[in-house]
Write a structure and sequence with these properties.
single chain; about 170 residues; alpha+beta; about 40% helix
Length: about 170
Amino acid sequence: PKDTPRRIRNPTADREAAQNRLARTTDEEREIREKLMDYQKLRSRGLIGEERRADWVERIAEIKSARKLFDVNYTIEPQRPADYPGLAAAGDVEFLASQMKVVLALLHEEDLFRFIDDLRGALSSHVLVRSCTVSRLEGTAADRGVGPRLRADCTIDLVTIRDRKAKAT
């Protein structure tokens, strides 16, 4: 019978292979910790879970009052799967969006930016501005004194994340 060649072990190569496995494991462990921290941050902000429409309505009323905005009219459409390039549901996680159409009567453009910033800070969702059009109002109360001079028509997505596993437990 033919002699089978014996593999000679190289202690240096074995040690390097073990160190590489350890480094990969450490990197994976670090990545898992970071993702868990990100998940906990999203959860604490209220982005993970069911949408909170009643809260949204209250927060928008509070923003209108605090900012002394002239007029805020909005509708929030039913929730649907979010449809963004490069974003796909994975495993037990769904990305959902409720589209909000809002019309604001503004004194100046900065009112719009402050309104959007306040939404981002107050709502339990990710606020994604899809579009905003600002136009000048003609022949309004602004001609007679202080009043709205601009109108903003915006489409904003209120994005939430549903964790199907968390719901099942």
